[in-house]
Amino acid sequence: MGINRNKYISLVICVFFSFSLFGCKYNFNKKVFNKSKPTNYYYTKLLMKDMSLKTPNELYALYMNFYKKKDFSKEDLTTTSQFFNSLTNSSFVSRPSNLPAKPIYKIFMTFSENKYVINIYDERYISIYPWDGDFNMDYIDTSKMYKNYNLYGLCKYLIPE
Q: Is the dihedral of CA 26, 27, 32, 37 positive or negative?
């Protein structure tokens, strides 16, 4: 008799719990379920915020043809900061149709909580995304930017071919 009673109570609890969720009108945080990217510079904004708060724990460039790695110096970090400060809204574009399949260089920036990857395709296009991002990359057209701030030139200087 005790076993049947326990089964009966468990069944009532399960049915009650199921019906309580049936008409749920709880307002969930819509940001969690939003699958569209808020802006086309979303990841760049996060990276700039992290850079303004602290310096990266690890910062290096990787030449993708021979997998050569070169750590950045403080001067190189200054150039990187100037690059991000010189960006405008018109610098951010949708994915270009003529974008190469593989970047020439990658820059890895590691902070205490976040890690970002910057793909450098050529002198004109780069992309930015976090290591574990949910959205598409931020694509940046650097053709109208001051040449000394171009990350392609910096990487070419750091890791000559």
A: positive
Q: Locate all alpha helices (DSSP H) within the chain, ordered by sequence.
A: 2-22, 30-33, 42-53, 74-85, 151-158
Nearest-angstrom CA–CA distance, 41 and 88 = 10
Contact assessment for residue 138 and residue 42, using Cβ atoms and an 8 Å cutoff: yes
**Alpha-carbon distance 24 to 125, whole Å?**
47
Three-state DSSP class for residue 139: strand
Per-residue pLDDT tens digits for 73-131: 888 888 888 999 899 999 999 999 989 989 999 999 999 989 999 999 999 999 999 98
